[in-house]
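Quick one, tokens below:
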């Protein structure tokens, strides 16, 4: 599992933008695990990352989605950290510390992304490498034109499976991303 320091060291801020670290005090009111809180405060999350993920502002305390969006109390265990490209809330579930998104077009159904914030961060790094490799092989617009070589997609799936086997199961975020890459 990637450490907060390793994530910061591997994230290319010049190319991919800054990493925002949350102040520990902004996380104390949550029931997130100490390991998750440590990663968010020492490693942080980028302001944005491929594939089309935006992360919330790191200057205010983290909120659960019922506080942030007025969602029903049933959602109080989901701590909002950002949005997907479709505008779905991206969250950490405090009961499990899994990273999920809440599919707004399907009654806010929980969709699995990664088993932990560590594995999520490492998956973002892998996706960045996938884009780099596609560009190296097929030119600067390879990712935007969806010209990802099959060998690169296979490498990405294999690496995802290595770091978080559940992330490539059917009906997960990364499974869907892999499907989109091979269309």
């Amino acid at each position: 599992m990637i450490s907060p320091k390793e994530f910061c060291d591997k994230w290319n801020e010049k190319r991919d933008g800054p990493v925002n670290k949350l102040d520990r005090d902004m996380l104390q009111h949550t029931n997130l695990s100490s390991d998750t809180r440590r990663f968010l405060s020492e490693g942080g999350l980028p302001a944005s990352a491929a594939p089309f993920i935006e992360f919330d502002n790191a200057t205010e305390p983290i909120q659960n989605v019922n506080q942030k969006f007025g969602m029903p109390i049933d959602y109080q265990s989901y701590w909002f950290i950002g949005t997907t490209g479709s505008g779905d809330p991206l969250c950490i579930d405090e009961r499990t510390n899994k990273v999920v998104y809440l599919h707004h077009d399907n009654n806010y159904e929980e969709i699995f992304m990664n088993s932990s914030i560590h594995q999520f961060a490492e998956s973002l790094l892998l996706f960045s490498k996938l884009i780099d490799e596609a560009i190296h092989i097929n030119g600067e617009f390879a990712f935007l034109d969806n010209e990802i070589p099959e060998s690169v997609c296979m490498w990405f799936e294999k690496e995802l499976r290595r770091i978080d086997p559940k992330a490539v199961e059917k009906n997960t975020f990364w499974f869907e991303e892999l499907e989109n890459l091979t269309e």
